[in-house]
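ok so for the tutorial part 2 we go from a plain amino acid sequence to predicted structure tokens. step 1 is just haveing the sequence, like this:
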Amino acid sequence: MEMFVSSSEFGVNSQAAIDGLLGPLGMKLVRHCNRGPMSEADLLALPSHYRALINYSSHDVFSAKVMDHFPALKIIARHGVGYDSIDVRAASDRGIWITNTRQGAGEDRSVSDLAMAMLLALSRNLIPFSAATKAGAWERPLSGDLDGQTMGIIGLGKIGKMTAKKARAFGINVVAFDVVRDERFAAECQISYVSFDELLAAADFISLHCPLTDGNRAMIGAREFARMKQGAIFINCARGQLVDEAALYEAAKSGKLSGVGVDVYYDEPPKGNPLLSLPNVIATPHIAAYTQATMTGMDMLVVTACADALQGKQPQNPVNQL
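step 2 — the prediction. this is what the tokens look like for a chain of 322 residues:
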């Protein structure tokens, strides 16, 4: 029995554990040689006998047509949290489980670490200071403080909460916007819920941590950047489609934003993206969750989900219900 994963990187650090789980069940993992996200045509070109598919890239296109290509398919296991490239309704109609790794892999720790690392680097101008010093300069202009500043977190889910805890440890005041409020957590961590527009106006630093839905695409655009403080820092470690990238570029280029940290992009990889040309932008290649511990945890979650589904059990972290 074969399972397909759209990456040759999958399971590199957890091969022994994967083999130990799959071997006794008579299951085999088939890896795809990496060459970027898989389009609908790429997936339709695969053999049709697979019963489990591991969705490694958030941009692999799992349409209804793709699902019909695999008549024995029981599960599409997302190696990550976002599943906007998967037609969940089509999967449910066909009795196919969709799962992700929203619980149990440690993504909240690794993603919040990167958001805070970007904030620290941008507020203290570490990258230009390092480059100038290496080039022989000895200039020491003043940079910003964290203590006493205000951070606005859009999306106070698991990752947003961990980011808030770390921000509070630096003495940063935190305000948050979310459609679902956890008043107990807010009280314990001294966090204030505010409206979306109030957050934009109040925050010195803004960090996105919400999932992508049909209703929040390009939720941050020219209007939203105009409402932010002059010189604010903006960080996106969530989804590129949440932001109007043309408006983000203008806000960063004009100085409306003093710094931008981006780990995700509308198109990935972001070839030719003008954001990458700006000196006040830190750009990373969608690696927020790419730590050894988190990736190993995600590997085992998706493999276990596939094994459960193929044995007729409900897998962990289901996105849909059958």
